[in-house]
């Protein structure tokens, strides 16, 4: 099995899912957002987690899809909250329909995600659902922290790290743990895989922060410096604020929280502050710490080396991305 | 056990629920809406359903609370969609906080509801969750139909009956079925109880439509004729539209879909149309049909007569209410 094989399995299975038919305004938005695509990372991780321990992946497929339906629910509701106009280059559900439709369609997606878990064998179902529910609540907590931070002037780096862990990383960790448990892994191996996924998730999010400033505009896909223009409290900004001496404090005070007439000048000035403080190398070092921790957890998992290599390769490619 | 004993059990158990602590903006709204009160009908039905077959109600308690948490989630999200300013006389969550907080707190409530089901014995858990998930999706479908109807000029009585069944009745039926299953009932008895609850729920909603027009303003609690003023497509209006002859058609055409300068005149004119067509007695007859069907289902349940009498009494009191 190669990652492409897994992804084909997932794509084929997603195409057969029946979310419901009537009323159309409830179910059409679900088909729409699920069809927008994406890398299907979460079901991929679930299948790869199971594949470490078993060749029988069909029983894992529907629970794997549950994680993708849940993830897309979070995108749908987050887009309402963030008033985002576009998702994967297409109009968001609340733009294409309206906010009420987006709220209610999202609600049904949570229900459908739980239904997909009902294919988990009864002996594992309580554990799987308990872990999923805890993870789902944590993802909501991460989203609330993220919104809280927009108006909170006293965000610490520790709080920020906890936010990205909750909002992004714990679900990746859960997917691997779920796959492992369904594949018959020991609780210890399942736990190492969860920590592998969580660590990679945190590293991935930190890299996202880094690419916003130091990415290649042509390949990153977003405007470089978008976080800087919007005063977003990223790891880079919070670290700079914590370490700035008088000259850098002056530049930060000049630009942060002010309407910006010249966005390019702001991006350049803040980037210079980052450069002076060595923020790039500090961020890269932290990313590397998490990545090495992740690999150590993977190393400890008692599974065939050539199967673990697939997960290592997946993580390497994720970290090497430029967009 | 009397209904008061059940309600005391429920109130005490609700007070001990821990929805989560941080971030406060996520969890405080949940505590707020759950503390607004209400008659706790859904967990009451769950306990009364179980009590028909067992004296051991403690294992039923947390799943019973799940239905109340889920019901309050629907109120929270419905209030956003309906832009309702008040809930049980207090500011709604989206008014007291904001819509984003209301969306996300509601999302976590769905997760917490599913978590409360995890106290169901493993052998019954898949069945309980499958039935709950189907019911939860149906409640969302009912809410979407209700919103669709606001702008749909061609709503049939059949569609309306289906909407109130989905939006209100199926959850009451599920609560009784859940209690029955947890109490050890046969599938047949659980099914009769579900139908009893669904029928009572439909009768209850029809009575709500009736009270809006023919209720006593002092005891009904809402302004009499509120549905008429807002052109709400109730059973009464849809039946009147289907049966109106030329004179009544003229009155309906004069008042429906028009801004109303004199609300009292509109209420009086439409009520006269209802009187001419005998809408009140037709509605009362239909309510009675559902109520009698409900009682027949209860009759068929194989459980002690004095315990079934509690459910019969509950239904009678619900139907006798003037508000």
From TrEMBL, chains A, B:
GO terms for molecular function: metal ion binding; prenyltransferase activity. Pfam families: polyprenyl_synt. InterPro entries: Isoprenoid_synthase_dom_sf, Polyprenyl_synt, Polyprenyl_synt_CS. Its cofactor is Mg(2+). GO terms for biological process: isoprenoid biosynthetic process. Gene3D superfamilies: Farnesyl Diphosphate Synthase. Keywords: Magnesium, Metal-binding, Transferase. Belongs to the FPP/GGPP synthase family. This is Polyprenyl synthetase.
């Amino acid at each position: 099995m190669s990652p492409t094989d897994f992804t084909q399995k997932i794509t084929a299975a997603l195409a057969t899912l029946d979310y419901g038919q009537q009323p159309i305004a409830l179910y059409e938005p679900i088909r729409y957002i699920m069809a927008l695509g994406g890398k299907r990372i979460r079901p991929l991780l679930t299948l790869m987690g199971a594949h470490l321990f078993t060749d029988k992946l069909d029983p894992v497929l529907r629970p794997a899809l549950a994680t993708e339906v849940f993830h897309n629910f979070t995108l749908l509701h987050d887009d309402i909250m963030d008033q985002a106009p576009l998702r994967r280059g297409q109009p968001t559900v609340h733009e294409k329909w309206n906010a009420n439709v987006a709220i209610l369609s999202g609600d049904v997606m949570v229900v459908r995600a739980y239904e997909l878990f009902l294919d988990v064998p009864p002996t594992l179902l309580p554990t799987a659902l308990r872990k999923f529910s805890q993870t789902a609540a944590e993802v909501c907590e991460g989203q609330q922290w993220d919104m809280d931070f927009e108006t909170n002037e006293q965000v610490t780096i520790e709080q920020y790290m906890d936010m990205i862990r909750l909002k992004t990383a714990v679900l990746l960790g859960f997917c691997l743990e779920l796959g492992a448990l369904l594949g018959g892994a020991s609780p210890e191996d399942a736990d190492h895989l969860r920590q592998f996924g969580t660590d990679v998730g945190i590293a991935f999010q930190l890299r996202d922060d880094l690419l916003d400033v130091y990415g290649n505009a042509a390949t990153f896909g977003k405007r470089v410096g978008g976080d800087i223009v919007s005063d977003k409290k990223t790891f880079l900004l919070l670290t700079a604020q914590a370490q700035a001496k008088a000259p850098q404090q002056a530049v930060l005070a000049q630009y942060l929280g002010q309407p910006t007439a010249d966005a390019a000048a702001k991006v350049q000035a803040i980037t210079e502050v980052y450069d002076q403080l060595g923020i790039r190398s500090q961020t890269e070092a932290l990313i590397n710490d998490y990545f090495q921790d992740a690999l150590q957890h993977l190393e400890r998992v008692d599974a065939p080396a050539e199967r673990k290599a697939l997960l290592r390769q997946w993580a390497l490619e994720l970290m090497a991305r430029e967009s």
